[in-house]
C-alpha cells in the first residue's frame, strides 16, 4: 500500500521550485529562476503567476510581475523597466531576469503559481543578496556566482594550459620512440635481408 500513498492526490500535484538564495554582483543581470511541476498542461486562460517582492520577511509584499493570459509587468518604481520575464509557462518555467541589479534590490522574491485544475497555489521564495564585490576566492560560492564571467575565463585558461602540456608531453614521447625505431630499423635492414633471400 505504501506506493499508493506516494502518489499525490489530484489537486496536490503542484510543486514550485526555486533556489533559496541567489547572490548577484551589483550592476549585473541575474536570473531568478522558478520552475514548477503540475499534473496538468498549462492553459493560458486559467494559469496565473504572481511575483512579489518583500524588503524584509515581515514587510508587505509588492506585486511586480503577473501572468494572466499574458505577462503584465507592474512597474514598481524600484525596478523601473529592469524586470524581464524570461520563463516559458508552457514548459513549467516562470523565471525572470533582473537587469542592472542595485543594492536596494536585496530582499525576498516570492513566486506564486496557480495552474487549474490543480486546486492549490504553489509557492517558492528566493532571498536575493547583492554583492558589491566578488567575495574572497576560497569561498566555493564564487565559482557559482562569478563562474559565468571570471571563473569561466579562468577555467578556459587552465584548460588551454593543460591541453598544451598534454600535447607537448605526447610530442616528447613521439620523438623518443621515433629515435628508437630508426635505430631498430637500421639493425633489421643489416641482418634481416639475407634471411629473406634464403626463403
Automatic annotation (TrEMBL):
SUPFAM superfamilies: Immunoglobulin (SSF48726). Gene3D superfamilies: Immunoglobulins. Residues 176-199 have a biased composition (Basic and acidic residues). The keyword Transmembrane helix applies. It is a single-pass type I membrane protein. Pfam families: V-set (PF07686). The keyword Disulfide bond applies. Its main location: membrane. This is SCN2B protein.
Amino acid at each position: 500500500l505504501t506506493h499508493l500513498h506516494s502518489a499525490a492526490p489530484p489537486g496536490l500535484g503542484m510543486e514550485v521550485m526555486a533556489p533559496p538564495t541567489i547572490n548577484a554582483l551589483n550592476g549585473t543581470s541575474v536570473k531568478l529562476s522558478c520552475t514548477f511541476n503540475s499534473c496538468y498542461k498549462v492553459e493560458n486562460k486559467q494559469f496565473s503567476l504572481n511575483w512579489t517582492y518583500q524588503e524584509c520577511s515581515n514587510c508587505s509584499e509588492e506585486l511586480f510581475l503577473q501572468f494572466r493570459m499574458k505577462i503584465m509587468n507592474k512597474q514598481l518604481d524600484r525596478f523601473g523597466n529592469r524586470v524581464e520575464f524570461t520563463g516559458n509557462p508552457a514548459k513549467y518555467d516562470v523565471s525572470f531576469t533582473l537587469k542592472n541589479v542595485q543594492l536596494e534590490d536585496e530582499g525576498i522574491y516570492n513566486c506564486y503559481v496557480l495552474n487549474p485544475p490543480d486546486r492549490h497555489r504553489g509557492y517558492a521564495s528566493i532571498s536575493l543578496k547583492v554583492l558589491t564585490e566578488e567575495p574572497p576566492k576560497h569561498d566555493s560560492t564564487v565559482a557559482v556566482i562569478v563562474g559565468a564571467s571570471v571563473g569561466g575565463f579562468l577555467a578556459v585558461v587552465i584548460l588551454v594550459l593543460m591541453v598544451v602540456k598534454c600535447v607537448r608531453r605526447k610530442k616528447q614521447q613521439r620523438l623518443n620512440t621515433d629515435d628508437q625505431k630508426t635505430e631498430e630499423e637500421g639493425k633489421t635492414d643489416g641482418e634481416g635481408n639475407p634471411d629473406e633471400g634464403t626463403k
